[in-house]
User: What shape does this take?
Amino acid sequence: MATMRAMVLEKPGTLLVMRERPLPVPAAGEILLAVAACGVCRTDLHVVDGELPHPKLPLVPGHEIVGCVTALGEGVSGFELGERVGVPWLGGTCGVCSFCRSGRENLCDHPVFTGYTRDGGFATHTVADARFCFPLGEAGDDAELSPWLCAGLIGWRSYRMAGEGEALGLYGFGAAAHILAQVAKWQGRRIYAFTRTGDEAAQDFARSLGAVWAGGSEEEPAELLDAAIIFAPVGSLVPAALKAVKKGGRVICGGIHMSDIPSFPYALLWEERCIQSVANLTRQDAREFLDIAPQAEIKAEVTRYPLTRANEALSDLRDGRLQGAAVLIP
Ligand SMILES: [Zn+2]
Ligand SMILES: [Zn+2]
Assistant: This one.
């Protein structure tokens, strides 16, 4: 019998364990992929650490999957055997709720999430709903494309929510920010990168990608910002970012989980500043980003780990020892 290997979460708060399983057969509408690379996202960390409720268990995490189609379920059209595709966080929607029917499938009442409520890509193989997969073409390296699937797509949605202003702050210069900095530079906007206080390596990294300024999250940049996007899961950054934006400025929270936001004076929100979270992605976000990324010549900086070292990749991400994105290679 053909088998696959996967790094499996059996209980939140514990390490992933390697398991061998029978190779799944794709159901109607699904495709089976041989995983070529799977990025490690901060959301994986929140799932593994038990900060997100009710994951499927046991679970194969991972939702930045680049793979090659090896079997097609009944009724799948638009994909061919051998084709390279990407699988993102949004693994399925109901298609009938009020959100799905109004172009807001990211807020679907009955969603499926890759690597959270269905198995993901920390594995040699995975099965995905073909309607939520994207062709990736042949250009580009598998590992370097994988962070596009979440850091890129949800980063892009956050970037759009931030509006058109020229001065944009990014709090937490990880996988998503390092991609958006390249998009912003390509569009001629000014990026201000805020990192953990004293993290000079991250600040140098941000400047190397075109940030006009990089400093600690408590520092004040030389100009007030049009908008800020917070990727670090740190609630105290919300009032810090409100202080850094000008009248009418937008503060976008791009992560799925954040520590509590401390109370702050209304004056920080006054003058039409606003705070908004970004949840998940729509397939339209994905189409837009996958169209723009090659034009902007986005290049993700990746650190590769063999699949068996997934726990090490997660702890390097947790402790901020990484620049850019961690990627697992089966
Ligand atoms: Zn729905
Ligand atoms: Zn993610």
Notes: The radius of gyration is 19 Å. The first strand starts at residue 3 and ends at 8. The first helix runs from residue 42 to 48. The pocket of zinc ion (ligand 2) is lined by residues 41, 43, 63, 89, 150 (CB under 6 Å).
